[in-house]
Structures are given as C-alpha cells and as structure tokens.
Amino acid sequence: MKYKDIRKSSYKNEKKVLAAPPHNFNMNNWLGSPYTCLKLRFCIELSSIFVYLLQFTKIKPNQITYIYAFSGLVGGVCLATNNSSFIILGIIIFFSKIVFDGTDGLLARVKYKPTKFGAILDEWAGLVGEYGFIFGLGLYLYNFSGNILYLYLMISILILKSIDFKNYIYNRILFKKKQLNKSVKNKDKENKFFSFIKKFIRDGFNYQGKTVDLILLIMLIELIQKKLILSQIFLYIYFFRGLLIFFGHLFSYRK
After folding, report:
1. Which of 7, 22, 87, 234 could form a disulfide with 48 if both were Cys (CB 3.0 to 4.6 A apart)?
2. pLDDT at 183
3. Closest residue by Cα to residue 65 from 36, 94, 108, 96
C-alpha cells in the first residue's frame, strides 16, 4: 500500500474510533484540546511511516506490541537510574512509545487482520507500561530526595494494582465477560450520581496521555533546576487514586 493511502486510512480510523463512545472526542477540536490534537498527529504521522516500511518485512503486529510493552519497562528502568542522561532517555521513551501503540493496530489493518488476541495483548502492553512508569517515578523521586517514603508509596501502588479485585474477576470468569459487562452497565445506571466522580478518578489522573506527559515535562525541568518541584505530588495522587479504585472495585462486585 502507498504511504499516502496508509496515512489517510490511519487518520480516518482514528477519527472514527475517537468520535465513538466512550471517547466522544473530536480530533479536530484544536481550540478545546490543542495538546491532545497535536499528540494524536505526532502518533499518526510516525506510525504511518513505520507501517509503510514494515509492510515490506515479515514483522507482525503482535511483535510490535511486545516492543511497546518492553519500551515501558526500559523507560521505567531509565527513570529509576540516578543518571541524568538515562532519565532523559526514559522521558523520551515514555513520551514516544505511544507510536508503537498506533503502529501495531495500523499494521494489522494494512497487511494482516485485527484479532481479539491482538486487542487483549495491546491492553496488556499498556498495563506493563503503567507498572514501568510507576516503578520509574518512585525510584526517580527516591534517588532525587533520599526520602524512603516514595519507595513505600511506589510499592503500595504496584501492590494495589496487582491485587485489584476487578482484574481477578475478569480472569476468573472470562467466559462470562459479556454478562459481567452488562451487569456493570446496569449498576452504573443505578448510580448516576457517582458517574462523574468515577470518571474523574479513573481518567483524570491516569498513566496515559496528558497526565504522564505533564509529569515528564516537570521531571525535565527538575533535572535542569536540580531539585524536586511538583513530580512528587503526582505520586501521592496516584497512591490515593489507587486506593479509591481498589476499594471501589471491591465493593462494586459485592453481592
């Protein structure tokens, strides 16, 4: 396929996906979300170039997804080092790894066929990236300040994510996923009063997009200033967010 066609197809697909629920986002809304619109184009442009080159190779989409997952681990290790050059490398990796996330799906649509396993693998890779970022942020703050509290917070966040009851439920009764999703939707309808709060907790300070990029920018400034400014606040936010989500899931699935 020609590069022009790949690029056009990528823009068309992203626009369609983002416009549908639960995103309901207009990728041309520069006035309302200038940064998101710019970052989307950064991802689409680079992934289109990569897919154009990769279509002539034997590399498969799932292999790109593994690279996406591995980049999250490498980025976390880089942030965890007490070396400015490696920390900057980690910042670049976390800022850019979204390109791999866009490349695997686009390659599947261009040369192969999207599969359910590929979609699940993509979610897993994103989760690996989250663990890598938490690990890297916690060690970065500890190395910068020597305050062991940051290590405790980092470990606590990782544990809360690991023992999340919702994840256990999904793994335990995966074959009943449709029924489970239906029951969850019904519960959401019954608790409309909390829908906004749930969404804010889940999406307001997550491990993706603008939040992570903001933290990366703050870390870069901190390296230049040689002192912590605001990045430590986000670790506290992630900790309390993790607590709320953990207990929220625990009580959501009670009988």
Report:
1. 7
2. 46
3. 108
The answer to whether 187 touches 251, Cβ cutoff 8 Å, is: no
Report helix, strand or coil for 204.
coil
| Whether pLDDT at 248 is above 90 | no
**Residue 21, in any domain of the structure:** no
Residue 103 within any structural domain of the chain? yes
Give the CATH number for residue 188. Answer: 1.20.120.1760
* Residue 174 belongs to some domain of the structure: yes
What's the CA gap between 242 and 166, in Å, rounded?
Answer: 13
C-beta pairs of 96-99 under 8 Å, 24+ apart in sequence:
96/46, 97/68, 97/71, 97/72, 97/129, 98/39, 98/43, 99/42, 99/43, 99/46, 99/47, 99/50
Q: Is residue 29 part of a domain?
A: no
Widest Cα–Cα separation across the chain = 55
> What's the rounded Cα separation, in Å, for the pair 114 and 58?
16
Closest CA to 67 of 125, 149, 135, 5: 125
In the chain, how many domains are there? 1
Place of tokens 């060690």: 139
Tens digits of per-residue pLDDT, 78-98?
A: 999 999 999 999 999 999 999
> Domain containing 81: what range?
58-252
What does the pLDDT look like over 185-209, one tens digit per residue?
444 444 565 565 556 555 566 666 7
Region of residue 24 (left: phi > 0; alpha: psi -120 to 50; beta: else)? left
Question: Which of 2, 85, 250 minimizes the C-alpha distance to 10?
Answer: 2
